[in-house]
Amino acid sequence: MNDVTVRNNVKMIGEGVRTIIFAHGFGCDQSMWKFITPSFEKKFRVILFDYVGSGNSDLNAYTKDKYHTLRGYMQDVLDIIESYNLKNVIFIGHSISSMIGMLASIERPDYFDKLIMIGPSPCYLNEAGSYVGGFEKSDIIELLDMMEMNFAGWASFMAPLAMNNPEFPMLSKELERSFISTDPVIAREFAEVTFFSDHREDLAKATVPTLILQCSDDSIVPLEVGEYLHRHLQNSTFRLMEAKGHYPHISHPEETISLIKEYLQCN
């Protein structure tokens, strides 16, 4: 196994010619795709990985210097593609991974065939009168402080809010377990990088065809954000999901699979 495989706990499954990379969001790991990947293994080569600090990644590979912006995470995605000599990649990113994948596609558009963004946001902060991101700066600072003071408390508060499927409490519990399993120091730093990132100016540079899957009633990413992305991303397709919450690949896997397959034109 090479260094990239170990660093990012890369797993390859499936038997197709085309390659899908599934990239998890903040506070999660590759296990979050477990309801989705079985539907693609027959027709695609599927790549799963953990960002450094998540899942079974190599925590020793984490440096604040590298990962203080999304570009450090972007470089890891490019490293995986280059390490496995992948071509025409379909990149499916959840939440902040949507922007990480987009940045990678701007850097190396020749590596990518399509981007699929699930619950994406180029900027999480509101700008009075000009942009709805969903959060005030004070909200984010409060969340970061809570992560620092009581990480388990933050996880139990945040999970049901983000999952937003109260009729299925086990889903929130599973997300809470995922949050708690991450390294608290790295998780807080990743949260800071995520929630204070602003990649609106990069949207105009993206050229790879993109599907935007916007969840309805998403407490992390308001509808206005998805619509903003669609307006500013050339070559984009926008689909508003029936799925509520921020994790449709967990709460509504059938709808998620169906929309991805429809976009990729595969059965």
TrEMBL record:
Keyword Lipid biosynthesis: no
Coiled coil spans: none
Molecular function terms, GO-annotated: hydrolase activity
Xref: Pfam families: Abhydrolase_6
Gene3D superfamilies: alpha/beta hydrolase
Protein keywords: Hydrolase
Family statement: Belongs to the AB hydrolase superfamily.
Protein name from the UniProt record: Alpha/beta hydrolase
Organism, scientific name: Paenibacillus radicis (ex Xue et al. 2023)
